[in-house]
Amino acid sequence: MDIKSFWPELGPSLEEASVYLNKYKNKKIILKYGGQVMSDQSLSKAFAQDAAILRKLDIDVTVIHGGGPQIKTKLDAQNLESKFISGLRVTDKNVIKVVEDVLLNEINPDLRDAIIHYGGKAESVTVRKNNVIHIDKSIDEQLGFVGEPKKIDIKILNKLFKEKIIPVIAPMGMDANGQVYNINADTAAGTIANQIKAERLLLMTDVPGVNDKQGNLISQLSTQQALDLINDGTITGGMIPKIKTCISAIESGVNGVVIIDGRKSHAVLFELFSNLGAGTLIVK
């Protein structure tokens, strides 16, 4: 395989990467795509290219995307209020329609097409087409149609891996009655990582990773240290559900979860194939 032919100039050096190339071969890696990276065209392209490269390197890669900023823009345009409880969007019957429209008709196909553009085979996996996320019920009645993913249809994902296709998953699920639910994309990514026993879960964010009280990046944390940082108020806001997802994923058998800085071009390649990494690694 001529890796040089598809390796990006702005990625880690091939010399450095070569040490890690076999580490993840035939392993499962989940990439959660969201935050600022989604609204920056050059970062979006670099992310799609990274996903395609992982597939070319015989890694079973799954992409799960968010859509918060785009959903907010559309809600604002329709004069619908954006309300949050503990970092989760309150989703009533009007909001769920907007969420579905943005995730399924705009973000998901665009991301799938971008990965295909860079030579990776990719397929949309959505609640309306080939749902893989099954919901028991709403997490909390105050949140409305916000579901907790319970069961993942692994058969659909394994079939795509076998065909060397990247599943591009929208974070929505369905209950036994056919009701559609919004799901926090980090939570969806964590649950899928647990149930397919992923080697790594990478969560893209708009920050360098987890910072200590002085604002310095912490390169590695144990799950207990991460819990301590939530309890002492170092970790706050939207980072709390992210960290809880990380802890839950690791407790369920994922070997490592990384909160990476999506604002860095080719952050995925730097995390997996360079000595420095690109964020905070959380391990048992």
Q: What are the key terms here?
A:
9 helices, single chain, Carbamate kinase, alpha/beta, 8-stranded mixed beta sheet, 23% strand, two-stranded antiparallel sheet, 284 residues, 37% helix
Q: Could you give the order of strands across the largest sheet?
A: 5-8-2-1-11-15-16-14
- How many beta strands in the DSSP annotation? 16
| Overall radius of gyration | 18 Å
The CATH superfamily label reads Acetylglutamate kinase-like
Write a brief structural summary.
This protein is of the alpha/beta class. It has one domain (3-283): Acetylglutamate kinase-like (Carbamate kinase), CATH 3.40.1160.
Explain how this protein is built.
With 284 residues, the protein is an alpha/beta fold. The chain has a single domain, classed as Acetylglutamate kinase-like (Carbamate kinase, 3-Layer(aba) Sandwich). It is built from 9 helices and 16 strands. It has helices at 14-17, 41-56, 68-77, 93-117, 154-162, 185-195, 223-231, 239-251, 267-273, and strands at 28-33, 60-65, 84-85, 88-89, 122-125, 133-138, 147-152, 166-169, 172-174, 180-182, 200-205, 210-211, 217-218, 220-222, 256-261, 279-283. The strands form 5 sheets. An 8-stranded mixed β-sheet has the order 5-8-2-1-11-15-16-14, with helices on both faces. A hairpin with a 5-residue loop joins strand 12 and strand 13 (217-218). It is globular, with a radius of gyration of 18 Å. It starts with 13 loop residues before the first helix and ends with a strand.
